[in-house]
């Protein structure tokens, strides 16, 4: 195998796949990247057996062939090379010679046959989504995925393909984020699946603003085909909890908040939220919110925000980090906060189908 | 739901309703069933796992509080999820752990290894321990403000551990959330070794470096353990820099601990060093009286005086003797006389006598036994007939008193410590070689201790 490519193309290709590379040392082949040269391009594949990514870059291929090379090492070398043209020449023993300008490297790889193949998708259910829609949806929900490994069904994002919409749900038991994306889904293609966090993170990196993504769901597997790149992942087995139970019925009060202003205030006030209780209080009064935090023996912070509010006076406490996460992920100028009372969950909404349920913290009197 | 459970659930929901909002109760708890109740655990059946997740994450404290007010004591709470039986097993296990963690909090004092009897109230103050007591109290009242670190040292059974535990309990009683760690340095070392073995160092460090009050007992055991010393050095610095209180106890002054790094010695001497001395007779009497009152026993004054007089070295032994006398009195029902007590406490009194032997007594006894003049013990003359008894006396002085080589040398007419050392070695060797010498010396030894 022998090919020449520009540094930018090669680096870009490696960047797409190298995050998946396994850190498990038990199977050395998993820390390698599979390179397959032919037909004017080189395909790159990495996998950790749970998630796999396949991408490609343009190259002048002199001799077709395939090999695997240590991904992290190859990436570090390519990144440091000074000249823009890079030639990689692999001999029959999987030793790669990398030439670029005055530099020469030789790194040892493993044979292509040892690399585990990505799963095949037959009899899969297929839907097509606009990349931009999916990327927005992931951004608005993925931060709420649980990291508590004992609740493994929550360690992923629910993709519910039903009733002509894709519903994405993430929850960790204290908050819940949900987005609906309208989509034509034939009855036969409906499915409820849980995509693990790692695949969600990788997918977010790969999705762009233009084009479509073809989603194929087979038993225990999912594939996202983005034309140039392909991401496959195992699914989390089990039933996602009935999240609808969490969403409060009718709200009593609604306030409209300027997202950025409110976020900045929260960030400032939260500097004085104590590590132990980690809560900030919102005190509502006529046309005003006071955001306060105080830590015994440290100090306190307070900020007032004028808002449209005509309801009764009351106070409610939240975990500031949980409140700021959705505000950071959203891009809208205005968000709506729906509240019932100081012991019931608050709900953040925007004009489009999005919902964020946040449990209040107990106010100790 | 059988009758008993449904009754209990009614009682519990009545207690729970004011704790949560009406909507929360209707949404989450109306679908919950109480399916099992034992003395320790309550099992709830929930329709599916979201109930368990959400209640565990958000309403556990309300539920626990309701359990407490309905049944008067905390119970372990388990959820059984009717949907997916496999997962139940796992999550039940988890909730169990969480709960037991929670339950153990109220009785924090005892779980820390603090003896509830060791408080400031039960400590008898005398001129021998005034300073240490005052310092300990000051530290307990304002941790890390006054004396940091507090270094308490003194012989066995003089109250080092008592004072340290009193500090710990005082601090916990005053502020529940304070993180108090009390342990012996030996345990510290063991845990450190364990952490190295299991690659748990981060957890180990987290545990100790986040304490608000760290009490380490018997710090002298750190001597010679280099890695542990280093670890402790960093722990010490982290806590000290974070203005956390450190209390240490030792059986000797810091500077006298052999094989302890200088940087540690200097740090130990940084704050306040307080010495505990053996109690004087008045204090001993006070301790005995207080103890007797605590044990609800009545003894004649003369017995108190006898005990206080004869047992001087250490409080623990004093208490042991009192206990023995008291239990003998209640078991046998006999009138206690001096002779009975003397017989009863024979071994203790003998031990005591050993510590009060003086070099002069030894010299007199040895001189008498070998039939030489007492003045020969200190004279410069050294024919074998005098030199050997003198060496025996030096050897006995070394064995039976706490005097240093130099002090013994001085007591034998200003000889230097090398001479004393030589004498001890020589006598030991001859004791090994010649039976009659060994017998002679052990005879003098036992007659001295009588």
Characterization of this structure:
- Chain A contains six helices and 25 strands.
- Chain A is α+β, with helices and mostly antiparallel strands.
- In chain A, a hairpin with a 2-residue loop joins β15 (212-218) and β16 (221-226).
- In chain A, α1 packs antiparallel against α2 (71-80) and α5 packs antiparallel against α6 (320-329).
- The radius of gyration of chain A is 25 Å and the shape is elongated.
- Chain A starts with a strand and ends in a 7-residue tail after the last strand.
- The mean pLDDT of chain A is 90.
- Chain B is an alpha/beta fold.
- In chain B, 60% of the residues lie in helices and 10% in strands.
- Chain B is built from 21 helices and eight strands.
- Chain B has helices at 3-16, 22-29, 49-71, 85-103, 108-111, 130-141, 160-174, 185-197, 201-209, 226-241, 262-268, 281-295, 301-310, 315-332, 338-344, 346-355, 359-370, 384-400, 405-411, 417-433, 435-449, and strands at 33-37, 41-46, 76-81, 150-154, 180-184, 213-217, 245-250, 272-276.
- Chain B has a five-stranded parallel beta sheet with strand order 5-6-7-4-8, sandwiched between helices. In chain B, strands 1-2-3 form a three-stranded mixed beta sheet.
- In chain B, α1 (3-16) crosses α3, α12 (281-295) packs across α13 and α12 packs across α14 (315-332).
- Chain B starts with a helix and ends with a helix.
- Classes of the chains: A alpha+beta (365), B alpha/beta (450).
